[in-house]
Structure prediction request, 764 residues.
Amino acid sequence: MDVYALLRSIEVLERFDDAAVRRLAAASRVGEYTANQIVLRRGAHVDFVGVVASGEIEIRLDAGTGDAAPPRLREGQLFGEMSLLTGEPAIADVVAAAASQVVLIPHEALTREIGANPLGAQGLAKLLTARLAKRGADPAERSAVARARSEAKASPAGSGPVLVLNLGSSSIKYAVFEGSVRRLDGLVERIGTGDTRLAHTGPAGKIERKLGGADHAAGLEAVIELVRHPEHGAVARLEDLVAAGHRVVHGGVRFTEATVIDAEVKAELEKVSALAPLHNPVNLQGIELCERLLPPGMLQVAVFDTAFHMTMPEHAYRYALPRAFADAEHLRRFGFHGTSHKYVSQTATAFLGEAQGALKLVTCHLGNGASIAAVDHGRSVDTSMGMTPLEGLVMGTRSGDVDPGVLLHLLRRGKTGAEIDKMLNKESGLLGLSGLTSDMRELERAADAGNAGALLAIQVFCYRVRKYIGAYAAAMDGLDAIVFTGGIGENGDGVRSRICAGLSFLGVELDEARNRGSVKIAERARIVSSPHSRVKVLVVPTDEEGMIAVETVRALGRSGAATTLAARRDRPIPIGVSAHHVHLCQAHVETLFGAGARLTPLKELTQKGQFACREMVDLVGPKGSVPRVRILGPERPDTQVEISRTEEFKLGIDAPIRASGDVKNSPGLVLRTERGQVELKEGVICALRHIHASPEDALAYGLRDRDVVRVNLSGERSLVFGDVLVRVAPAFTLEMHIDTDEANAAEVNPDSTCTIDSIQRRGG
Prediction:
């Protein structure tokens, strides 16, 4: 097949020059499908644009149960192009209606060519603009998008095999994933004891080997040999691996997402090794060993335990220590188990049929190491572990929360730092309380036999978990579900029962019959609460290795987009300062300004169709008021108030940082005019800083809808802002919006501009 000729004939690529189209053809592959074979399943992540080369491709929006005659695509027609812009999963089953050939153009290759020649993307931008406009007018398609997001698979489609490595002080855990399929996994343990052993499960079943006195290098050599073994391995050649993904315990404040490793990243990891001296050095050793053992140029990715928790607000991660000293010494809360908390929160949300980022969850990772996270609308806003994994819950041998005065007392009594460290990390927790063991299963058996120490250990453990759950429900101002994972969380039905027994005030009602059941291998989650429970309780088996594979592939995608961003540094983005304002629904317009009233435009805003109104309203909170706040039009389906952090304090409310429109479980206040007043039950937010972009602008910058980026603000007082949300819509004009507090901090003026530094998280 002449792939170049096919791509050259497509209208949406006509503005690309011949060299660009030849590069796209070289990067593409041809898929051949028999009649009724599924090309792409609904809910799968999409990392390519498909071009029909021959045959017919059917788009089944309702998985074959909806339209009698689903639309069909023929030669030269495209599918999957929306995911290039939105990152969304497939919203329909894509099926070969007859024997067909499809050219699959990788998103990364297309993004790279767009970055080199933004004008070449005009045809594609025009198509995407039309598709977005159609979606806005088509409730069925919007519903399909929501359904696909709720069913989204964890792994990106089309990704090749990924090697996952987790090096501990005396062990190597490993696995190979291809898409969502685990091809093999294993464990090298007892490294450094003279009795190193390897247990491996692959295509030919389980094998065990004794490795004698193998160190990490020899252990990893044995792993690599098995990965490419003709009988027990996953790949014929190491060159077939897409990348190696490494678990790295501590990423410090810089790394908020999985990151492709280079010399600069390695240097940064060395700097933060002091924060995780038992883990980061051996994680780095694994990276350097792979540089020697894997083919030259093989990409490696660091996936950080701390990254998921870097969305915690400052009031949650700060210790009440002298600020300058704490900053200089990096004394702050980081949190750990982030890969697990991220996986189970996303899995639970999808299992409950909700869109990602729609719920308030408390995720409980309970094992020999244990932590809890408050996950508010997809973002970790608090977690029990702190600067080190020692803070928080009672664990197998770790103490968890202890009065710092106890440590000072021990120092005054002559204990050394090493002795205190050993006691808190190795001799405390369940082991220290019981005097018996750190194993919860053995403790429950001992407690059943009447052992008082075992019973006390279990009671303290469950009490601490219950206390944190209650605190996090209060911190988030509500709770939709509690998720249990980890060895104890998944298997300890008695522990779950003890924890939930004290949470009835939150609306938690456990179903004991369900709770005593077990998660089957094929199940990704199960509900153990009663049908009447206001707060759902779920058990979700964690899959940290699978999540590392997913994050590795996503990091590779962000790395490809970085080239496009770098090419656009010469095209700065205007900054708009978004002062406090109100959006009103029509019913509230009439309540506040009289029957039949409509908003009257005062002046047009930068964004098409948006305008500042002549009408204003007073905001009245529990503590104070903010008078004469401008209303922005046109009318919206729901009323929303956007204020700054300074105004939150003045009004006496704590508004969450949210994207516009995301007001569920937010606080309310009173809107007042001379004609009337409205008492909002919810709807007040502090707007997440964001960038508006048209499809053409988004393609030119290599961005997707709902990407989260880091932005440099230029000027006399330059600043870097993280967690900037990208929103893409046909009517948008390119502009970054920040609130007045942020603008004052950066001394923004009407001519200020910004550039995008990097992509923190990919949308979709």
Summary: Residues 710 and 722 are 4 Å apart (CA to CA). The longest strand covers residues 611-620. The first helix runs from residue 3 to 8.
